[in-house]
Amino acid sequence: MSGSRDDARPVFMIGIAAEMAGMHPQTLRMYERRGLVSPGRSKGHTRLYSQVDLARLGRIQSLSESGLNLAGIERVLGLERELARAISRVRELERELDANARDAERAADAARRAMSHEIVHVRHVGGPPAVRVAPVIPAGLRPVPRPAPVRDPRRSS
Description:
This protein is mostly helical. The protein has two domains: 5-67, Multidrug-efflux Transporter Regulator, Chain: A, Domain 2, CATH 1.10.1660.10; 69-116. Helices cover 53% and strands 4% of the residues. It is built from five helices and three strands. It has helices at residues 5-8, 14-21, 25-33, 51-65, 70-116, and strands at residues 12-13, 40-41, 47-49. β2 and β3 form a beta hairpin. The longest helix has 47 residues, at 70-116. The protein is elongated.
């Protein structure tokens, strides 16, 4: 199934479609009532089936031959539809993610170019630094001073 517009165009009347699918026309009507297939209609309300419909009928027939009843076939086809939608959504999200990654890379490149002339490279010659810098401890993390231990006069050390 190529998925072109011609494949989706309803052209086959029910008798021809049933013969092409290897089914009885009444079976096609029952599948339509169950919502398994949705043929187009002519101006005179005649059912017209497309290549897409015939492929779907073939899928229904293969599921039936594998032992599934109509309820099982409906469930499988519904799950296949959900899977196709999920795959489509994943592809859409992948394209969006790729576009965002390209934008982020461009922004990072621009930021690197903007900062490259502002960076001063310092070469360490050796010896201690000119000014000793005391470590800074944030106010909330300063150690709590402990009281000096009280000596017991009865003990001699």
